Amino acid sequence: MPIIVVDVMPKPEILDPQGKAINGALPRLGFTEFSQVRQGKRFELTVEGEVTDEILAQARTAAEEMLSNPVIEDVVNVAVLDEAEGAR
Amino acid sequence: MPIIVVDVMPKPEILDPQGKAINGALPRLGFTEFSQVRQGKRFELTVEGEVTDEILAQARTAAEEMLSNPVIEDVVNVAVLDEAEGAR
Questions:
Q1: Interior CA angle at A77 toward A75 and B12, to 5°?
Q2: Which chain B residues contact residue A35 at CB under 8 A?
Q3: What is the ipTM score, two decimals?
Q4: What domains are there in chain B, each with its CATH number?
Q5: Which one of A43, A64, A83, B21 has the fewest CB atoms closer than 10 angstroms to its CB?
Q6: What family, per the record (chains A, B) (predicted)?
C-alpha cells in the first residue's frame, strides 16, 4: 500500500536541544565530521488504494494543521514514498 | 553546506503509541484517507565541505550506533539532501 511521508523540522531560528545534545555527543564517540545536528520528525501515512492529488493535498493540510506546530516547526517535505523504498 | 538526512522509524512489529494517537485524531479532524500512521525521527547532519564516501559511511555508522535504537528502530534512509531542497 502506498505511503505518504511527511517530514517536519524545527525552524532554523528555534533552539533544538535534542539536536544540540547529539551534536555534543558525536565527537566523543569519534564522529567528527558533522558541524551541526538538528532533530525533527518523520511521519508515514498509509493510504488504502491509489494516492490521488486530492489525498496528497489532504496529507499536506494534515501536515500543516496537525502534524506540525507552525510556531516552531516547518513542514519540509510531503511526498509519496517510492515503491522500491516502500517495499522494505 | 551539504546536509545528510538520516531517517529512523519504529520497527513494524513495535507498537508506536504516538502514531496510534495521531491515527485516532485524524478522522476527528476530517482526515479520513489514512489507514495507518507511524511516527519516526528525521536527523539533519550538516557537513563542512564535500560529502565524501567516507563521511557518508560515518553518517551510516552514527545512524546505526547512536541515532537509532536497533532493538526497536530501523534506519530507513541515509542520504545527502539534494541542493534544491537544501536551499530552503
A1: 100
A2: 1, 46-48
A3: 0.90
A4: 1-13+39-79 (3.30.1280.10)
A5: A83
A6: Belongs to the PurS family.
Q: What is the pLDDT along chain B (88 residues), one digit of tens a residue?
A: 899 999 999 999 999 999 999 999 999 999 999 999 999 999 999 999 999 999 999 999 999 999 999 999 999 999 999 765 544 4
Check B36 against A45: CB less than 8 A apart: yes
For residue B69, the SS3 value is: coil
CA distance B36 to B7: 18
Q: Locate the chain B residue with the closest alpha carbon to A39.
A: B43
Average confidence (pLDDT) per 10 residues, chain A, 88 residues: 96 95 94 95 95 96 96 96 58
Residue-wise pLDDT for A62-86, tens only, equals 999 999 999 999 999 999 997 655 4
**Strand (E) or helix (H) holding A17:** helix A17-28
Q: Of B35, B48, B88, which has the smallest distance from its Cβ to A35's Cβ?
A: B48
Residues of A in contact with B39 (CB under 8 A): 41-44
Residue A82 grid coordinates: 517510492
**Which chain A positions have a beta carbon within 8 Å of B48's beta carbon?**
33, 35
